[in-house]
Design brief:
alpha+beta; acyltransferase activity, transferring groups other than amino-acyl groups; EC 2.3.1.-; Acetoin utilization protein AcuA; nine-stranded mixed sheet; Aminopeptidase; GNAT_dom; 210 residues
């Protein structure tokens, strides 16, 4: 499947200065930006910056960033699911995962995450894809936000809804291990019926076992 990436951008005003939200950006462009030291949700900032540059270089990889001048203060990633996860078992070339979204504490509460997702969905090529995201409460910054699990889940759900992602049921053991974890997905307008059926089979593997 051909992976077209149409660049989009928008400006977002915040009390801490205007942010430029853009993407999908190239690996070269991404490597040239500074990476904020408070982007620590998944791994140390330098390692995460390197990982994002690698994702941006993949045919299906998409990175949308929020930057203050030359410094990245937030990002969202899209790529094929991890080969070890059930979502890759269908070997679907039109299923991609919103793998990570992060915004530094200073810019939270100003719809940065929502705008990152909105800029990602401005690309018409996204209508060819089935986009999933798996939300696990252990990745959430409950301490930093002061929110409880259910409040944070509500914030995440609202943010994903703004990009057209909706809650989907699944029997995936990791997602089922806590009621706040969830699977969300957006089925593009041009996704065929076979792909939707394959996705349903991936969501509920246990009911096909006799």
């Amino acid at each position: 499947m051909e992976h077209k990436k149409i660049y989009n951008a928008k400006e977002l005003k915040t009390p801490h200065g205007n942010l430029f939200i853009e993407g999908p950006i190239t690996a070269e462009k991404l490597a040239g930006y500074e990476f904020h030291e408070h982007l620590v949700a998944f791994r140390p900032p330098a390692q995460q910056h390197k990982a994002l540059v690698e994702i941006a270089g993949l045919p299906e990889g998409r990175i949308i960033v929020a930057r203050n001048r030359h410094t990245i203060v937030g990002y969202v990633t899209f790529l094929y699911p991890d080969p070890l996860e059930r979502w890759s078992e269908g070997k679907m070339d039109n299923l991609i995962e919103l793998g990570a979204i992060e915004v530094i504490p200073e810019y939270r509460g100003y719809s940065v995450g929502k705008n990152l997702i909105n800029v990602a969905m401005m690309d018409d090529a996204m209508e060819d894809f089935l986009i999933i995201t798996t939300e696990y409460y252990w990745h959430w910054d409950l301490k930093g936000t002061g929110l409880n699990v259910w409040e944070y889940r509500k914030v995440m759900e609202k943010m994903m809804n703004s990009g057209g992602l909706e809650w989907y049921a699944t029997d995936d053991p990791e997602i089922s291990s806590h009621p706040a974890n969830c699977l969300m997905a957006r089925i593009g307008k041009r996704v065929d019926t076979d792909s939707i059926q394959k996705f349903d089979q991936l969501r509920f593997k246990n009911r096909f076992m006799y």
